[in-house]
Amino acid sequence: MRFSYLLIPLxxxxxxxxxxxxxxxDVSAGDSMSYNTKSIEIPSNCEEFTVNFTHTGKLSKEGLGxxxxxxxxxxxxALANAGSTEGIKNNFLPQDDxxxxxxxxxxGGGESASTTFKTSVLDSDxxxxxxCSFPGHTFMMRGTVVVKx
Length: 149
Ligand code: CO
Prior knowledge:
This protein has 149 residues and is mostly beta strands. It contains two helices and nine strands; from the N terminus they run ββββαβαββββ. It is globular and about 40 Å long.
């Protein structure tokens, strides 16, 4: 497992320019339990893929925080259950759990975080999903991740 993330105050975030680099995507969520997308496509020629996640709301991360987590679809419910007792300091995720392929920390309104992962970890015969691990959010906040030629 390999991941990295950056926390950037939104005021200092770069303008959201259309980019020639399609090996990244911008995802957002606000003061409700929903992402702005239900599906993310990763071009098969990307060696790495980056998700730039922004909380566009005003609520704190303790009140209505969100994150972006990537896992096999079949692991999502178990990870959400296992993470629910981990607390916000552990981003409501089980620690050092290989089922977590990539994740951003839980963020609050006005914050952004990114995660980059190698696409070689994705098996073309497997189904993948992204979700928010904040307790109570996972049922509403999830979508599919597919590698596309
Ligand atoms: Co959430």
